[in-house]
Amino acid sequence: MSGPVSTAGVVCFRGDDVLLIKRGKPPRLGQWSIPGGRIEWGEAAIAAARRELMEETGVEAEILALVDVVDGVFVGDDGEVQRHYVMIDYAARWTSGEPVAGDDAADARFVPMSEVDAVVEWQETRRVIHEAWARFGGA
């Protein structure tokens, strides 16, 4: 068994909208989430966040601050841990580009903050988005 995988994610705001991707791979396949992915060997977390944002959505943004570090521990039907991610999530302000799904994303779009709770299934992702919005909303 290997250790947790480090990832970086971005809660990117454009006015009253937040950028979401529909996950094209497990875990949470088909669910809406924030753009993000694995931190590569030798890569700074903030650089990984910018890279993943561009790869998954084609969008560029100014990183504003760290929002939270979240453990994503995913257990299989047998009760065994299947995946463990340490997710480093940043808040960002959109600077350019229109969302186009790429890399691991099946879809990408800006969603009004008023629709986040109806669209995003995982409570931890909703919590991080709302925490970023409370600190940087309308960025």
Strand elements, count = 7
Reading off the top of the CATH hierarchy, the class is best stated as: Alpha Beta
Beta-strand content bin? 35-45%
What structural class do the secondary elements suggest? alpha+beta
> How many structural units, i.e. domains?
1
Query: What is the H level of CATH, i.e. the homologous superfamily?
Result: Nucleoside Triphosphate Pyrophosphohydrolase
Shape: globular
CATH architecture field: Alpha-Beta Complex
* CATH fold name: Nucleoside Triphosphate Pyrophosphohydrolase
Biggest pleated sheet:
7 strands, mixed
Terminal CA distance reads 41 Å
Average pLDDT taken over every residue: 94
Low-confidence stretches: none
Q: Rg to the nearest angstrom?
A: 14 Å
The tally of helices reads: 3
Q: What helical percentage do the residues reach?
A: 10-25%
Order of helices and strands: EEEEHEEEHH
Describe this structure in words.
With 139 residues, the protein is α+β, with helices and mostly antiparallel strands. The chain has one domain (5-136): Nucleoside Triphosphate Pyrophosphohydrolase, CATH 3.90.79.10. It contains three helices and seven strands, in the order ββββαβββαα. It has helices at residues 45-57, 116-119, 123-136, and strands at 5-14, 17-23, 32-33, 36-38, 60-75, 81-96, 105-112. Strands 1, 2, 3, 4, 5, 6 and 7 form a seven-stranded mixed sheet that branches. A hairpin with an 8-residue loop joins strand 2 (17-23) and strand 3. The termini are far apart. 30% of the residues are buried.
SSE topology sketch:
Elements: E1 5-14, E2 17-23, E3 32-33, E4 36-38, H1 45-57, E5 60-75, E6 81-96, E7 105-112, H2 116-119, H3 123-136
Parallel strand pairs: 1-6
Antiparallel strand pairs: 1-2, 1-4, 2-3, 2-7, 5-6
